Amino acid sequence: MDSRVARWCRALWVGRAPAVVGGPHRLGGPHRLGGLHRLAGIAIVLFAGCSSRDHLNPFDPENPLTRGEPSLVTAAAGDGLVDLAWTLPEFDDLAAVRLLRTDEGDTNLVLPVDVLFAGGEWRDSTVTNDRTYSYVLEFDFQGEAVSRRSAGAPATPGRAVIWLLDQSGGGPLRISPDGRAVADRPGQGRPTDMSLNPITGAVVSVDFINRRVERFDRMGGAGAVLELGSNPISVAIAEPSDSVWVGTANPSEIRLWDPDLTVTTNVDTGFGDPEDLAFDPARGALWIADSRGGRLFHRRASGEVTVIGGFILPISVAIDRATGDAFLIDRARRSLFRVDALADTVIWTRAGFGGLYQALADPIRGGVWVSDNLAGTITRVDGTGAVVRLISGWAAPTGLALDPGSGDLWVTDASLGQLIRIRESGQVLQRLRGFSGPFAVAVTTPATDSSVRTHGNP
User: Residues 397, 275, 284, 305: is their CA dihedral positive or negative?
Assistant: First the structure.
């Protein structure tokens, strides 16, 4: 079965048929702020004044939907900023309304914005990174001595960069650094794979159906766009050069593009369906998982290619940066393999999984994490092949990413439509809901050196 069709079927098994199919790190294909200004919808029934004790009044503590604090404000954190948006119900006795900000241990600060005439959105650039703030609307009503407040909208600005791919499409989604909001949806089409530059926070995405490669800087700014005559399946940034490897079908080949996506410096053919690419920056090597031919290719910096066979449906490969070894998952064999980078032989095999989806190397603890969207588990396997952590109870875990600072794990659950942050122990720290079928996530904290920039973008 063609890998693209197979991925579609695997998506159906978890109840989420993606719009695009292909490569690892995604349900719809291979792997995966700028103004937020998109309000999470809230249904508020118009009412005749705040003094009404009708339970449809959103400020009524007995209102079953709001409990007296309607969610009127959304906040999307950024690097040294918070983008705010709000919606106002219609009142017939409103006297005044203010936007307030509180932070840890501080009293309320009235922000210098005219809520009624600001167009429903405003950027707060008077914040400090890694500090948590809460934003509320405060209302004064005629004839009432007590002000009423909306529910607080928390935000923690910071430098972290989080990208997510969702089967809803619309380009890669840029998530706020605190993981609480979708900050931006740049790009076009329905990306099926992406690769993140960990130094700059820039991302390159590929779109199998629309035959497109796009680059975005860490703030979501659009960079180069490449239209192809073939179908791109997978992508890997060749650190530190910022050049980009792209694997395609029809025809089957891998190409190394310059950072501007205008010049091809290497072209290799005969890779079947290059379902996943993983680049080893320390050795300049590229690993290619061929889901059609059941093979793993090891392309060294010299251009020499070694083929390792014996697999059935390899769909995700990750690199142990300490040794250069590859971790490979074979969905059909329900197994995880470690492949020696020097001898190009299988060191060990860990079998017994349900439906493996992604492999993610863990440079902090060593070993590798794997998601299993059929068994509903996330497993950490050490360098010897022993299981050291099994986290069960998931609906359909797909994409995985490691926070380089805290070591926390970010997980997309395609069935729940959520991005979830957990500790290594499995403790859930937070959830971001509202996705159609998220299948890939990537996380980094870019360098603070202002001389380090995404190619062609700030």
Answer: positive
Domain end residue (candidates: 135, 157, 179): 157
Domain that holds residue 182: 161-444
CATH assignment of the domain containing 80 = 2.60.40.10
Residue 17 has pLDDT above 80, yes or no: no
Q: Are residues 183 and 324 in the same domain?
A: yes
Does residue 15 lie in a domain region? no
Residue pair 245/279 in contact (Cβ under 8 Å)? The answer is: yes
Span 314-372, pLDDT tens digits: 999 999 999 999 999 999 999 999 999 999 999 999 999 999 999 999 999 999 999 99
Alpha-carbon span 192 to 436, nearest angstrom? 14
CA-CA distance, 454 to 458, in Å (whole number)?
6
